[in-house]
Protein backbone atom coordinates (compact mmCIF):
# COMPACT_ATOMS: atom_id res chain seq x y z
CA UNK A 1 0.00 0.00 0.00
CA UNK A 2 1.21 3.44 -0.73
CA UNK A 3 -0.35 6.78 -1.30
CA UNK A 4 1.69 7.37 -4.40
CA UNK A 5 -1.31 8.16 -6.54
CA UNK A 6 -2.21 10.95 -4.20
CA UNK A 7 1.15 12.60 -4.71
CA UNK A 8 0.06 14.04 -8.03
CA UNK A 9 -2.40 16.69 -6.90
CA UNK A 10 -5.90 16.16 -8.21
CA UNK A 11 -7.04 19.67 -8.92
CA UNK A 12 -10.70 20.39 -9.22
CA UNK A 13 -12.22 23.78 -9.03
CA UNK A 14 -14.83 23.88 -11.73
CA UNK A 15 -17.83 24.22 -9.41
CA UNK A 16 -18.03 26.50 -6.41
CA UNK A 17 -18.87 23.61 -4.09
CA UNK A 18 -15.70 21.60 -4.79
CA UNK A 19 -12.86 23.91 -3.80
CA UNK A 20 -9.40 23.31 -5.26
CA UNK A 21 -7.43 21.03 -3.02
CA UNK A 22 -4.18 19.11 -3.09
CA UNK A 23 -4.18 15.81 -1.27
CA UNK A 24 -0.63 15.12 -0.13
CA UNK A 25 0.78 11.87 1.25
CA UNK A 26 2.01 11.86 4.86
CA UNK A 27 3.15 8.38 5.84
CA UNK A 28 1.16 5.17 5.87
CA UNK A 29 -1.83 6.32 7.90
CA UNK A 30 -2.26 10.00 7.10
CA UNK A 31 -3.12 12.55 4.44
CA UNK A 32 -2.46 16.26 4.41
CA UNK A 33 -5.12 18.18 2.51
CA UNK A 34 -4.01 21.60 1.30
CA UNK A 35 -6.62 24.25 0.50
CA UNK A 36 -6.40 27.65 -1.14
CA UNK A 37 -6.75 29.54 2.14
CA UNK A 38 -7.81 29.39 5.76
CA UNK A 39 -11.50 29.86 4.95
CA UNK A 40 -11.51 26.82 2.66
CA UNK A 41 -9.59 24.83 5.29
CA UNK A 42 -12.18 25.78 7.90
CA UNK A 43 -15.03 24.64 5.64
CA UNK A 44 -13.33 21.30 4.94
CA UNK A 45 -12.62 20.88 8.66
CA UNK A 46 -16.30 21.38 9.49
CA UNK A 47 -17.33 18.89 6.80
CA UNK A 48 -14.81 16.30 8.05
CA UNK A 49 -16.15 16.63 11.61
CA UNK A 50 -19.70 16.26 10.30
CA UNK A 51 -18.84 13.12 8.32
CA UNK A 52 -16.92 11.58 11.21
CA UNK A 53 -19.81 12.23 13.61
CA UNK A 54 -22.19 10.64 11.09
CA UNK A 55 -19.97 7.55 10.93
CA UNK A 56 -18.98 8.14 7.29
CA UNK A 57 -15.31 8.65 8.07
CA UNK A 58 -12.99 6.64 10.32
CA UNK A 59 -10.03 8.74 11.39
CA UNK A 60 -8.33 9.33 14.76
CA UNK A 61 -7.05 12.87 14.34
CA UNK A 62 -8.46 15.77 12.31
CA UNK A 63 -5.95 18.59 12.69
CA UNK A 64 -6.68 21.86 10.90
CA UNK A 65 -3.89 24.41 10.46
CA UNK A 66 -3.29 27.64 8.54
CA UNK A 67 -4.47 26.29 5.17
CA UNK A 68 -4.33 22.54 5.57
CA UNK A 69 -6.23 19.79 7.35
CA UNK A 70 -4.31 16.71 8.50
CA UNK A 71 -6.13 13.39 8.69
CA UNK A 72 -4.10 10.97 10.82
CA UNK A 73 -4.88 7.45 11.96
CA UNK A 74 -6.97 6.55 8.93
CA UNK A 75 -8.71 3.16 8.99
CA UNK A 76 -6.82 -0.12 8.81
CA UNK A 77 -5.76 -1.72 5.51
CA UNK A 78 -9.23 -3.23 5.03
CA UNK A 79 -11.17 -0.26 6.35
CA UNK A 80 -13.14 2.10 4.16
CA UNK A 81 -10.76 4.99 4.59
CA UNK A 82 -7.26 3.95 3.63
CA UNK A 83 -5.25 7.03 2.68
CA UNK A 84 -5.28 5.94 -0.95
CA UNK A 85 -9.05 5.51 -1.13
CA UNK A 86 -9.80 8.68 0.75
CA UNK A 87 -7.36 10.64 -1.42
CA UNK A 88 -9.42 9.63 -4.44
CA UNK A 89 -12.75 10.44 -2.77
CA UNK A 90 -11.93 13.77 -1.12
CA UNK A 91 -11.78 15.98 -4.23
CA UNK A 92 -15.28 14.84 -5.25
CA UNK A 93 -16.88 16.02 -2.02
CA UNK A 94 -19.23 18.95 -1.99
CA UNK A 95 -18.17 21.18 0.85
CA UNK A 96 -20.70 23.68 2.18
CA UNK A 97 -19.29 27.09 3.05
CA UNK A 98 -19.11 28.02 6.73
CA UNK A 99 -21.89 30.27 8.01
CA UNK A 100 -20.63 33.84 8.26
CA UNK A 101 -21.82 34.33 11.85
CA UNK A 102 -22.43 31.82 14.58
CA UNK A 103 -25.22 31.61 17.14
CA UNK A 104 -22.86 30.32 19.75
CA UNK A 105 -20.11 32.78 20.62
CA UNK A 106 -17.80 32.29 23.58
CA UNK A 107 -17.11 35.53 25.44
CA UNK A 108 -13.69 35.96 27.02
CA UNK A 109 -13.33 38.86 29.47
CA UNK A 110 -10.15 40.88 28.88
CA UNK A 111 -8.32 43.70 30.59
CA UNK A 112 -6.64 45.65 27.79
CA UNK A 113 -3.50 46.33 29.80
CA UNK A 114 -0.77 44.52 27.83
CA UNK A 115 2.81 45.82 27.74
CA UNK A 116 2.77 46.08 23.92
CA UNK A 117 -0.49 48.06 23.69
CA UNK A 118 1.32 51.30 22.77
CA UNK A 119 3.39 49.58 20.07
CA UNK A 120 0.30 48.03 18.53
CA UNK A 121 -1.54 51.37 18.65
CA UNK A 122 1.41 53.02 16.89
CA UNK A 123 1.45 50.31 14.20
CA UNK A 124 -2.29 50.68 13.67
CA UNK A 125 -1.92 54.48 13.80
CA UNK A 126 -4.69 54.85 16.38
CA UNK A 127 -4.89 56.12 19.98
CA UNK A 128 -4.07 53.45 22.57
CA UNK A 129 -7.67 53.12 23.83
CA UNK A 130 -8.80 52.40 20.26
CA UNK A 131 -6.91 49.07 20.25
CA UNK A 132 -9.35 47.67 22.81
CA UNK A 133 -12.33 48.94 20.81
CA UNK A 134 -11.13 47.42 17.52
CA UNK A 135 -10.13 44.12 19.12
CA UNK A 136 -13.32 43.71 21.14
CA UNK A 137 -15.54 44.60 18.17
CA UNK A 138 -14.29 41.67 16.08
CA UNK A 139 -15.76 38.18 16.05
CA UNK A 140 -13.00 35.61 16.07
CA UNK A 141 -12.87 31.98 15.09
CA UNK A 142 -10.34 29.43 16.32
CA UNK A 143 -8.61 28.46 13.07
CA UNK A 144 -6.43 25.84 14.73
CA UNK A 145 -4.59 24.94 17.93
CA UNK A 146 -0.94 24.22 18.52
CA UNK A 147 2.17 25.47 20.32
CA UNK A 148 0.78 24.28 23.67
CA UNK A 149 -2.34 22.39 24.81
CA UNK A 150 -5.24 24.82 24.60
CA UNK A 151 -3.44 27.51 22.60
CA UNK A 152 -5.72 28.62 19.76
CA UNK A 153 -4.82 30.64 16.68
CA UNK A 154 -7.81 32.97 16.30
CA UNK A 155 -8.61 34.74 13.04
CA UNK A 156 -11.14 37.51 12.48
CA UNK A 157 -9.31 40.77 13.09
CA UNK A 158 -9.79 42.69 9.86
CA UNK A 159 -9.07 46.22 8.65
CA UNK A 160 -5.89 46.76 10.66
CA UNK A 161 -2.26 45.99 9.75
CA UNK A 162 -0.93 42.61 10.85
CA UNK A 163 1.30 42.85 13.89
CA UNK A 164 4.77 41.29 13.57
CA UNK A 165 6.19 39.08 16.29
CA UNK A 166 8.48 40.86 18.71
CA UNK A 167 12.08 40.94 17.49
CA UNK A 168 13.13 39.40 20.80
CA UNK A 169 10.67 36.91 22.30
CA UNK A 170 9.96 37.21 26.01
CA UNK A 171 11.39 34.38 28.10
CA UNK A 172 8.22 34.24 30.20
CA UNK A 173 4.78 35.37 29.09
CA UNK A 174 2.24 35.10 31.94
CA UNK A 175 -0.70 32.71 31.62
CA UNK A 176 -3.80 34.48 30.36
CA UNK A 177 -1.88 37.00 28.24
CA UNK A 178 -3.75 38.03 25.10
CA UNK A 179 -1.41 38.57 22.17
CA UNK A 180 -1.30 39.36 18.48
CA UNK A 181 1.00 37.98 15.77
CA UNK A 182 0.48 38.03 12.01
CA UNK A 183 -3.18 37.39 11.23
CA UNK A 184 -3.77 35.76 14.63
CA UNK A 185 -4.90 36.54 18.15
CA UNK A 186 -3.99 34.05 20.88
CA UNK A 187 -4.24 33.59 24.64
CA UNK A 188 -1.39 31.90 26.49
CA UNK A 189 -2.83 28.90 28.42
CA UNK A 190 0.11 28.90 30.82
CA UNK A 191 3.31 30.81 31.40
CA UNK A 192 5.75 30.13 28.59
CA UNK A 193 8.29 31.88 26.39
CA UNK A 194 6.60 33.80 23.59
CA UNK A 195 7.08 36.40 20.89
CA UNK A 196 3.52 37.67 20.43
CA UNK A 197 2.70 41.33 21.10
CA UNK A 198 0.68 41.43 24.31
CA UNK A 199 -2.36 43.70 24.42
CA UNK A 200 -4.24 42.34 27.42
CA UNK A 201 -4.87 39.64 29.96
CA UNK A 202 -7.73 37.40 31.04
CA UNK A 203 -8.58 35.28 34.07
CA UNK A 204 -10.33 32.72 31.84
CA UNK A 205 -8.79 29.26 32.21
CA UNK A 206 -7.74 28.29 28.70
CA UNK A 207 -6.65 24.82 29.77
CA UNK A 208 -7.63 22.76 32.78
CA UNK A 209 -7.02 19.06 32.37
CA UNK A 210 -9.36 18.30 35.28
CA UNK A 211 -12.22 19.98 33.38
CA UNK A 212 -14.27 18.40 30.59
CA UNK A 213 -13.47 19.62 28.03
CA UNK A 214 -9.96 20.51 29.14
CA UNK A 215 -9.52 23.09 26.38
CA UNK A 216 -11.67 26.24 26.40
CA UNK A 217 -10.92 26.73 22.71
CA UNK A 218 -11.12 24.09 19.98
CA UNK A 219 -10.85 24.57 16.22
CA UNK A 220 -14.06 26.19 15.00
CA UNK A 221 -14.98 27.86 18.32
CA UNK A 222 -16.30 31.41 17.79
CA UNK A 223 -14.96 33.94 20.26
CA UNK A 224 -15.53 37.56 21.26
CA UNK A 225 -13.28 39.43 23.65
CA UNK A 226 -15.24 41.56 26.12
CA UNK A 227 -13.48 44.45 27.90
CA UNK A 228 -13.72 43.93 31.66
CA UNK A 229 -15.63 46.49 33.71
CA UNK A 230 -18.13 47.41 31.02
CA UNK B 1 -1.46 -4.48 55.04
CA UNK B 2 1.12 -3.41 52.57
CA UNK B 3 0.96 -0.31 50.53
CA UNK B 4 0.70 -0.79 46.75
CA UNK B 5 3.37 1.72 45.88
CA UNK B 6 7.07 2.01 45.26
CA UNK B 7 9.70 4.53 46.28
CA UNK B 8 12.22 5.95 43.86
CA UNK B 9 15.70 5.46 45.33
CA UNK B 10 17.61 6.63 42.26
CA UNK B 11 15.64 8.33 39.50
CA UNK B 12 18.44 8.08 36.91
CA UNK B 13 19.16 10.56 34.11
CA UNK B 14 15.55 10.71 32.90
CA UNK B 15 12.91 8.21 33.97
CA UNK B 16 9.31 8.85 32.99
CA UNK B 17 5.97 7.10 33.28
CA UNK B 18 4.74 5.94 29.88
CA UNK B 19 1.81 4.03 28.43
CA UNK B 20 0.21 4.02 24.99
CA UNK B 21 -0.09 7.80 25.07
CA UNK B 22 -2.99 10.16 24.49
CA UNK B 23 -3.81 10.12 20.78
CA UNK B 24 -6.99 11.83 19.60
CA UNK B 25 -6.25 15.30 21.00
CA UNK B 26 -3.80 16.63 18.41
CA UNK B 27 -6.36 19.24 17.28
CA UNK B 28 -6.08 20.81 20.75
CA UNK B 29 -2.29 20.96 20.57
CA UNK B 30 -1.84 17.84 22.73
CA UNK B 31 1.05 15.58 21.63
CA UNK B 32 0.45 11.81 21.45
CA UNK B 33 3.30 11.00 23.86
CA UNK B 34 3.66 7.36 25.09
CA UNK B 35 6.56 4.90 25.24
CA UNK B 36 9.17 5.53 22.54
CA UNK B 37 9.98 1.84 22.12
CA UNK B 38 6.41 0.51 21.97
CA UNK B 39 7.57 -3.02 21.28
CA UNK B 40 9.69 -3.20 24.44
CA UNK B 41 7.02 -1.56 26.61
CA UNK B 42 4.40 -4.06 25.38
CA UNK B 43 6.73 -7.01 26.03
CA UNK B 44 7.52 -6.12 29.64
CA UNK B 45 3.82 -5.58 30.35
CA UNK B 46 3.08 -9.05 28.95
CA UNK B 47 5.83 -10.57 31.08
CA UNK B 48 4.22 -9.38 34.33
CA UNK B 49 0.67 -10.14 33.17
CA UNK B 50 -0.35 -6.47 32.77
CA UNK B 51 -2.79 -5.30 30.14
CA UNK B 52 -1.19 -3.59 27.16
CA UNK B 53 -2.28 -0.14 28.33
CA UNK B 54 -0.66 -0.38 31.79
CA UNK B 55 1.88 2.35 32.53
CA UNK B 56 5.55 1.36 32.74
CA UNK B 57 8.73 3.28 33.53
CA UNK B 58 10.96 4.42 30.67
CA UNK B 59 14.60 4.92 31.71
CA UNK B 60 17.28 6.74 29.75
CA UNK B 61 20.85 5.37 29.51
CA UNK B 62 21.60 4.82 33.20
CA UNK B 63 18.58 2.98 34.60
CA UNK B 64 17.05 3.64 38.02
CA UNK B 65 16.56 2.05 41.44
CA UNK B 66 13.23 1.39 43.12
CA UNK B 67 12.04 0.03 46.46
CA UNK B 68 8.54 -1.47 46.22
CA UNK B 69 6.52 -1.32 49.47
CA UNK B 70 4.76 -4.55 48.56
CA UNK B 71 5.88 -7.76 46.88
CA UNK B 72 5.53 -7.22 43.15
CA UNK B 73 6.41 -8.96 39.91
CA UNK B 74 8.58 -6.80 37.66
CA UNK B 75 10.18 -7.21 34.25
CA UNK B 76 12.93 -5.09 32.73
CA UNK B 77 13.36 -4.86 28.96
CA UNK B 78 14.29 -2.52 26.17
CA UNK B 79 17.96 -1.56 26.39
CA UNK B 80 19.82 -4.57 27.88
CA UNK B 81 21.24 -3.95 31.36
CA UNK B 82 22.20 -5.63 34.63
CA UNK B 83 19.25 -6.07 37.02
CA UNK B 84 19.67 -6.83 40.73
CA UNK B 85 17.39 -7.34 43.74
CA UNK B 86 19.10 -6.48 47.02
CA UNK B 87 22.40 -6.76 45.18
CA UNK B 88 21.81 -10.21 43.69
CA UNK B 89 21.70 -10.50 39.92
CA UNK B 90 18.32 -11.48 38.50
CA UNK B 91 17.10 -12.07 34.96
CA UNK B 92 16.68 -9.25 32.45
CA UNK B 93 13.78 -9.66 30.03
CA UNK B 94 11.89 -12.06 32.32
CA UNK B 95 9.42 -11.78 35.21
CA UNK B 96 11.14 -11.36 38.57
CA UNK B 97 9.45 -11.42 41.99
CA UNK B 98 10.66 -8.54 44.16
CA UNK B 99 9.87 -8.86 47.90
CA UNK B 100 8.38 -5.93 49.79
CA UNK B 101 11.04 -3.34 50.71
CA UNK B 102 13.75 -5.00 48.59
CA UNK B 103 15.90 -2.79 46.37
CA UNK B 104 15.41 -3.28 42.64
CA UNK B 105 18.33 -1.84 40.69
CA UNK B 106 18.13 -1.35 36.95
CA UNK B 107 21.69 -0.80 35.78
CA UNK B 108 23.09 1.38 33.01
CA UNK B 109 22.24 0.30 29.47
CA UNK B 110 24.90 -2.05 28.10
CA UNK B 111 23.65 -1.06 24.66
CA UNK B 112 20.68 0.98 23.49
CA UNK B 113 19.17 3.97 25.27
CA UNK B 114 15.77 3.29 26.81
CA UNK B 115 14.96 0.65 29.38
CA UNK B 116 11.41 -0.35 30.33
CA UNK B 117 10.35 -1.47 33.78
CA UNK B 118 6.91 -3.04 34.13
CA UNK B 119 5.54 -3.57 37.64
CA UNK B 120 2.54 -5.81 38.28
CA UNK B 121 -0.57 -3.63 38.31
CA UNK B 122 1.15 -0.83 36.44
CA UNK B 123 2.16 2.61 37.66
CA UNK B 124 -1.17 4.03 38.82
CA UNK B 125 -0.64 7.80 38.75
CA UNK B 126 -3.70 9.88 37.88
CA UNK B 127 -4.36 9.80 34.13
CA UNK B 128 -4.60 13.03 32.14
CA UNK B 129 -6.84 12.85 29.05
CA UNK B 130 -6.90 9.08 29.39
CA UNK B 131 -3.14 8.56 29.65
CA UNK B 132 -0.50 8.40 32.39
CA UNK B 133 2.33 9.31 30.03
CA UNK B 134 4.76 12.06 30.85
CA UNK B 135 4.79 14.49 27.95
CA UNK B 136 8.03 16.43 27.98
CA UNK B 137 6.95 18.91 25.29
CA UNK B 138 3.75 20.16 26.87
CA UNK B 139 4.22 19.11 30.50
CA UNK B 140 1.09 16.96 30.66
CA UNK B 141 1.11 13.85 32.82
CA UNK B 142 3.30 13.11 35.84
CA UNK B 143 6.67 14.86 36.12
CA UNK B 144 9.82 12.80 35.47
CA UNK B 145 10.78 10.65 38.48
CA UNK B 146 12.82 12.27 41.24
CA UNK B 147 14.80 10.66 44.04
CA UNK B 148 12.54 10.00 47.02
CA UNK B 149 9.26 10.18 45.08
CA UNK B 150 6.62 7.55 45.87
CA UNK B 151 4.38 6.34 43.05
CA UNK B 152 1.22 4.21 43.39
CA UNK B 153 0.77 0.77 41.84
CA UNK B 154 -2.46 -0.61 40.44
CA UNK B 155 -4.10 -3.81 41.68
CA UNK B 156 -1.95 -6.87 40.97
CA UNK B 157 -2.98 -8.49 37.70
CA UNK B 158 -4.95 -11.72 37.97
CA UNK B 159 -3.75 -12.94 34.61
CA UNK B 160 -0.56 -14.94 34.68
CA UNK B 161 2.15 -14.07 32.25
CA UNK B 162 1.74 -16.20 29.17
CA UNK B 163 5.47 -16.27 28.56
CA UNK B 164 8.54 -16.41 30.78
CA UNK B 165 10.92 -14.74 28.41
CA UNK B 166 10.52 -13.06 25.09
CA UNK B 167 13.08 -12.44 22.39
CA UNK B 168 13.90 -8.75 22.24
CA UNK B 169 15.71 -7.25 19.30
CA UNK B 170 19.10 -5.84 20.19
CA UNK B 171 19.70 -2.13 19.69
CA UNK B 172 20.68 -1.34 16.13
CA UNK B 173 24.34 -1.05 15.10
CA UNK B 174 23.07 0.90 12.12
CA UNK B 175 19.65 2.48 12.25
CA UNK B 176 17.68 1.74 9.09
CA UNK B 177 14.67 4.02 8.68
CA UNK B 178 12.35 3.38 5.75
CA UNK B 179 10.88 6.61 4.44
CA UNK B 180 7.88 7.39 2.28
CA UNK B 181 7.76 10.78 0.55
CA UNK B 182 6.34 13.54 2.69
CA UNK B 183 3.89 16.26 1.81
CA UNK B 184 6.71 18.72 1.17
CA UNK B 185 9.21 16.52 -0.68
CA UNK B 186 8.81 18.97 -3.55
CA UNK B 187 10.26 21.74 -1.36
CA UNK B 188 13.66 20.03 -1.75
CA UNK B 189 15.98 19.70 -4.73
CA UNK B 190 16.34 16.34 -6.49
CA UNK B 191 19.96 16.07 -5.26
CA UNK B 192 18.74 16.69 -1.70
CA UNK B 193 16.24 13.82 -1.97
CA UNK B 194 19.09 11.60 -3.23
CA UNK B 195 21.37 12.79 -0.44
CA UNK B 196 18.84 11.86 2.23
CA UNK B 197 18.48 8.30 0.98
CA UNK B 198 22.06 7.57 -0.07
CA UNK B 199 24.34 9.31 2.44
CA UNK B 200 24.93 8.29 6.04
CA UNK B 201 23.67 10.42 8.90
CA UNK B 202 24.46 10.03 12.57
CA UNK B 203 22.21 10.26 15.60
CA UNK B 204 22.89 13.61 17.28
CA UNK B 205 23.33 13.91 21.03
CA UNK B 206 20.63 16.62 20.92
CA UNK B 207 18.00 13.90 20.34
CA UNK B 208 15.23 13.49 22.90
CA UNK B 209 11.65 12.22 23.22
CA UNK B 210 10.48 14.97 20.89
CA UNK B 211 12.74 14.14 17.99
CA UNK B 212 15.69 12.12 16.75
CA UNK B 213 18.07 14.78 15.54
CA UNK B 214 20.75 13.91 13.02
CA UNK B 215 24.16 15.16 11.92
CA UNK B 216 25.05 14.78 8.27
CA UNK B 217 24.86 16.49 4.91
CA UNK B 218 22.28 19.30 4.96
CA UNK B 219 19.33 19.06 2.59
CA UNK B 220 19.03 21.87 0.09
CA UNK B 221 15.65 23.48 -0.38
CA UNK B 222 14.14 24.04 -3.82
CA UNK B 223 11.48 26.36 -2.38
CA UNK B 224 12.47 29.23 -0.13
CA UNK B 225 10.33 31.16 2.26
CA UNK B 226 8.17 30.04 5.12
CA UNK B 227 5.60 27.31 5.27
CA UNK B 228 2.41 28.17 7.20
CA UNK B 229 1.99 25.85 10.20
CA UNK B 230 0.58 22.45 9.32
CA UNK B 231 -0.28 19.24 11.15
CA UNK B 232 2.55 16.85 12.02
CA UNK B 233 2.61 13.05 12.39
CA UNK B 234 4.75 10.54 14.26
CA UNK B 235 7.85 9.78 12.18
CA UNK B 236 7.64 12.99 10.14
CA UNK B 237 11.10 14.10 8.98
CA UNK B 238 11.11 17.85 9.47
CA UNK B 239 13.92 19.85 7.96
CA UNK B 240 14.73 23.04 9.90
CA UNK B 241 16.74 25.88 8.33
CA UNK B 242 20.07 24.15 9.10
CA UNK B 243 19.06 21.38 6.65
CA UNK B 244 19.60 18.50 9.13
CA UNK B 245 16.64 16.11 9.24
CA UNK B 246 14.77 15.66 12.54
CA UNK B 247 12.58 12.56 12.93
CA UNK B 248 9.55 13.31 15.11
CA UNK B 249 9.09 10.93 18.05
CA UNK B 250 6.23 10.54 20.57
CA UNK B 251 6.36 14.00 22.19
CA UNK B 252 6.47 15.87 18.85
CA UNK B 253 4.55 19.14 18.44
CA UNK B 254 1.15 18.72 16.78
CA UNK B 255 1.79 21.45 14.22
CA UNK B 256 4.98 22.81 12.71
CA UNK B 257 6.23 25.24 10.14
CA UNK B 258 9.25 23.47 8.69
CA UNK B 259 8.72 21.32 5.60
CA UNK B 260 8.35 17.55 6.01
CA UNK B 261 10.45 15.81 3.37
CA UNK B 262 9.32 12.28 4.25
CA UNK B 263 7.77 10.10 6.92
CA UNK B 264 9.52 7.18 8.65
CA UNK B 265 7.48 3.99 8.90
CA UNK B 266 6.04 3.58 12.36
CA UNK B 267 7.46 0.07 12.84
CA UNK B 268 11.01 1.44 12.43
CA UNK B 269 10.64 3.96 15.25
CA UNK B 270 11.17 1.48 18.11
CA UNK B 271 14.73 1.01 16.87
CA UNK B 272 15.13 4.80 16.63
CA UNK B 273 14.31 4.99 20.35
CA UNK B 274 17.31 2.74 21.09
CA UNK B 275 19.91 4.36 18.83
CA UNK B 276 22.67 5.96 20.91
CA UNK B 277 24.19 9.26 19.75
CA UNK B 278 26.74 8.58 17.01
CA UNK B 279 24.83 5.61 15.56
CA UNK B 280 24.83 5.65 11.76
CA UNK B 281 21.35 6.34 10.33
CA UNK B 282 20.41 5.26 6.82
CA UNK B 283 17.18 6.57 5.38
CA UNK B 284 15.83 4.12 2.79
CA UNK B 285 13.30 5.51 0.33
CA UNK B 286 10.19 3.35 -0.17
CA UNK B 287 6.62 3.86 -1.34
CA UNK B 288 7.28 5.97 -4.41
CA UNK B 289 10.36 7.82 -3.16
CA UNK B 290 11.42 10.11 -6.03
CA UNK B 291 14.11 8.53 -8.19
CA UNK B 292 13.36 4.93 -7.22
CA UNK B 293 12.83 2.68 -10.24
CA UNK B 294 9.86 0.91 -8.76
CA UNK B 295 7.93 0.85 -5.55
CA UNK B 296 9.35 -1.22 -2.76
CA UNK B 297 8.37 -2.06 0.78
UniProtKB/TrEMBL annotation, chain B:
Keywords: ATP-binding, Hydrolase, Nucleotide-binding. Residues 27-297 form the Carboxyltransferase domain. The keyword Transport does not apply. The keyword Nucleotide-binding applies. This is Biotin-dependent carboxyltransferase family protein.
Amino acid sequence: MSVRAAASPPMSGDTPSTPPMRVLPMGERALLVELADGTAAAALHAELLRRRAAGDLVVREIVPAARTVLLDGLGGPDGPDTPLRLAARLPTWEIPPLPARADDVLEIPVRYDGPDLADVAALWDVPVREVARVHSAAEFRVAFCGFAPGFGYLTGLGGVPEVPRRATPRTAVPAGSVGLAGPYTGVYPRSSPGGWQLIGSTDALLWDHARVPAALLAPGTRVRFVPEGR
Amino acid sequence: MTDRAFAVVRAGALTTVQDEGRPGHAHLGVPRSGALDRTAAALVNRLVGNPADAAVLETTLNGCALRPRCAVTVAVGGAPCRVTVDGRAVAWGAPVRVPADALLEVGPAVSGVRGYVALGGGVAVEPVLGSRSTDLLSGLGPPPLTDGAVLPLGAAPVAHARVDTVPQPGPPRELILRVTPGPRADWFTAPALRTLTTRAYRVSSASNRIGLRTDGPPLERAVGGELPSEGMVLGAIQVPPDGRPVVFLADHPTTGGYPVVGVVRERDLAAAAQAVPGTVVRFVGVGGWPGLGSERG
